[in-house]
Design goal:
The chain starts with 5 loop residues before the first helix and ends with a strand. Strands 1, 2, 3, 4, 5, 6, 9 and 10 form an eight-stranded mixed beta sheet that branches. The protein has a four-stranded antiparallel beta sheet with strand order 8-7-11-12, with no helix packed on it. The protein contains six helices and twelve strands. The protein is globular, with a radius of gyration of 17 Å. The mean pLDDT is 95. With 262 residues, the protein is an alpha+beta fold. α1 crosses α2.
Length: 262
């Protein structure tokens, strides 16, 4: 791996930030595959700082590339982490303007809200469930665009997991009501089933994804905090959508959420 200087990582972060804001990517002439994962997360950190300086606010975390379907689609072999930020938090009933995104794609998500801090691993299932206030059905929105070919894990990390926004459904259930291995997930586009899976497709259980995130943050001297949102990854591959589409993501016990694209 090449030891890229901080200045290069900051310029790369600026490129991803400019794309997020304007849809224009100012290419950096580097081999992104030569970044170490630590450097990729450093670049992501600079990307977050640019957004925060522009008034955006972190509200939680995402874990991505947690299922075999997503890893095959992205060509990566291990999970990644990123931030959820506002603006970019949508509620069920909000219209989604396709003009605000680049090649919009979605995936179903369990949306976890924490009721206590989490800062240690390993942690029992019971302790994790006790730390969750409630779970809601959600839809993660992505700018499904790659800027380096072939796609590498480093780009997924630098781009904050190509995360664009998070739509949260109205239904709320206790964590104890969710089957964290066999909870079914189905995605319907314009009434047609286009993808399905079960919770176990997400690292054996979304709780394992949560553990991965806790460990990742602990290495950075950080922790999950009460009130934060966590999306642990999708049981299905990304699904492209366009203006006029209506998407419904249904979960066995968590309920369903619908999104209309204009």
């Amino acid at each position: 791996m090449m030891n890229y200087e901080t200045a290069v990582l900051k310029r790369l972060a600026q490129s991803f930030y400019t794309f997020f804001r304007t849809g224009v990517f100012r290419s950096e002439q580097i081999d992104i595959s030569k970044l170490t994962l630590e450097q990729a997360y450093e670049c992501q950190h600079y990307y977050h700082k640019l957004r925060i300086a522009d008034g955006d606010r972190p509200i939680g975390y995402k874990v991505g590339c947690t299922s075999a379907a997503i890893r095959k689609q992205f060509g990566v072999d291990e999970p990644i982490c990123g931030l959820i930020m506002t603006p970019g938090l949508l509620r069920e009933g909000d219209l989604v303007d396709s003009n605000n995104y680049c090649q919009l794609a979605i995936e179903p998500e369990f949306v976890i809200t924490l009721k206590q801090d989490l800062d240690r691993v390993p942690i029992s299932d019971r302790a994790l469930l006790d730390a969750i206030e409630f779970v809601q059905p959600g839809i993660e929105l992505h700018n499904y665009v790659y800027h380096f070919s072939p796609l590498k894990q480093q780009e997924v990390i630098c781009s904050n997991g190509i995360h664009a926004a998070q739509l949260v459904g109205n239904n709320k259930v206790l964590a104890s009501k969710v089957h964290w291995q066999l909870e079914g997930v189905a995605v319907f586009k314009n009434g047609e089933l286009v993808a399905s899976g079960v919770a176990a497709d997400i690292m054996g259980s979304p709780l394992n994804s949560l553990r991965f995130l806790i460990q990742h943050l602990r290495k950075q001297g950080e922790k999950l905090k009460v009130g934060e949102l966590v999306i642990p990854g999708s049981a299905t591959a990304l699904i492209s959508v366009v203006a006029g589409d209506e998407i419904t993501c249904s979960f066995t016990n968590v309920g369903s959420v619908t999104m209309k694209v204009v």
